[in-house]
Amino acid sequence: MEILHISAECYPVAKVGGLGDVAGALPKYQQKNGHNVKLIMPMYKTKFLAENEWEVDYKGNAHLGSYYFDFTIIKEKTDKLGFSLYLVDINGLLDRERVYGYEDDAQRFIAFQICVATWLRQWSVQPDVVHCHDYHTGLLPFIFKYCYDFKELQNVPTVLTIHNAEYQGWMSWDKSVWLPRYDNWKAGLLEWGKIINPLAAGIKNAWALTTVSPSYMEELRYNSNGLEDLFEYEKGKCHGILNGIDNEVWNPKTDSFIEQNFDEISVTKGKQQNKEVLCKEFGLDIAYPLFVFIGRLVGEKAADVLPDAIRTAFYSLDKKVNFLILGSGEPLIEQRLDALKQEFSGNYNFYNGYNEKLSHLMYAGADFLLMPSRVEPCGLNQMYALRYGTMPLVRRVGGLKDTVIDIGDNGYGICFSQANINDLVDSCHRAVAVFEKKKIFASYRKKMMQIDNSWDNTVGKYIQLYEQLN
């Protein structure tokens, strides 16, 4: 099949969260399965852009309301990611250092989508499916169907994958002038809650919808930031397909980011050596169990619970534990986590920001991973942790519920029900009790590492869905 993915992120080109990891892995594994796969994304000013060779694939022009602009689509020459990678360059609009967070993000991503549609329109043979990811590409199914300038694309099947329904790209109706000319009778297909909602538009107009885990698909029908009725109405075209992880990138046997490589046979020794490096770098006590949190410091991840939960756990466990936090987000949460460094020096540290190498080392060296998320569509961190023999402590929500089984149910993780201090601290106590039983803990580590969460198990489900649309 000829498959085109459209995304705002793609690891290792530009990554903010799980969307980037999925967009960097799913196309690669589809290509490995014999399909012709392309991905197109905005051209940001990144290290990847500067360090690789590019060729011009297409030059064009378009309108964003009254704003006329030129754009260029470039292609990475060697297909080093395992699939064909294309970037859209709009001078002054997309070529910035960050992916998101600008006041004109709405214009940026609408312009990006118009460029993609313009590029696609001149293909001699259209793709078998266009796979859109999140709200940044959610207007394309509508553009294909109802915008006059793109009638050639109206029969191209579209799939929209929702990685996180909390972010929807809301815009007031005065912004509709940025869209290509469309059939005004279809304006309702852009709207939800009396404003333009790109995610809702994608849900309404895409031929099929997927989410990144079966449980999240069910949760969206009663908790989707205002779209609950829409998901209920469109449930007939919804499919929950669990994300995988890239076992080539996340492989403790070959990972160049970690201090000591290991497998399920050498896991105890290998993790200990990585833990020694972590503890030395961050001033932690190697003798105690090491709990880590890796991710965005926002309410969605229940990061606001961490400061008080960590303080309570320290005192209730006689300070015989270590905590290491890697992340950034809400300033108040960052300040509270930073303040703990003085209070619990020698057993706690906080790295404010994101560091890909450090994240790998933390998965390899930690004993336990904390994921108390309020919302977790799929979650990749718990799968990375399992791959590295690190036991996840997770709230039973979304994809965490689909991927982690409690040790009390003959599983390999620790699960709890509420994103609050008591549940998180109780889980830490359970974890310490397991840690102290060295032989049992070692057997859990081997069990975790044998779990296969690779994309190989998932790719076929997407291909089957694509084939149903053709």
TrEMBL record:
InterPro entries: Glyco_trans_1, GS/SS, Starch_synth_cat_dom. Residues 287-445 form the Glycosyl transferase family domain. Belongs to the glycosyltransferase 1 family. Bacterial/plant glycogen synthase subfamily. The keyword Glycosyltransferase applies. Its EC number is 2.4.1.21. The gene is glgA. This is Glycogen synthase. One of its GO terms (biological process) is glycogen biosynthetic process. Synthesizes alpha-1,4-glucan chains using ADP-glucose. Pathway: Glycan biosynthesis; glycogen biosynthesis. ADP-alpha-D-glucose binds at residue 15. It is an enzyme of class 2 (transferase). Keywords: Glycogen biosynthesis, Glycosyltransferase, Transferase. Gene3D superfamilies: Glycogen Phosphorylase B. Residues 3-231 form the Starch synthase catalytic domain. It catalyses: [(1->4)-alpha-D-glucosyl](n) + ADP-alpha-D-glucose = [(1->4)-alpha-D-glucosyl](n+1) + ADP + H(+). GO terms for molecular function: alpha-1,4-glucan glucosyltransferase (ADP-glucose donor) activity; alpha-1,4-glucan glucosyltransferase (UDP-glucose donor) activity. PANTHER family: ALPHA AMYLASE DOMAIN-CONTAINING PROTEIN, GRANULE-BOUND STARCH SYNTHASE 1, CHLOROPLASTIC/AMYLOPLASTIC. Pfam families: Glyco_transf_5 (PF08323), Glycos_transf_1 (PF00534).
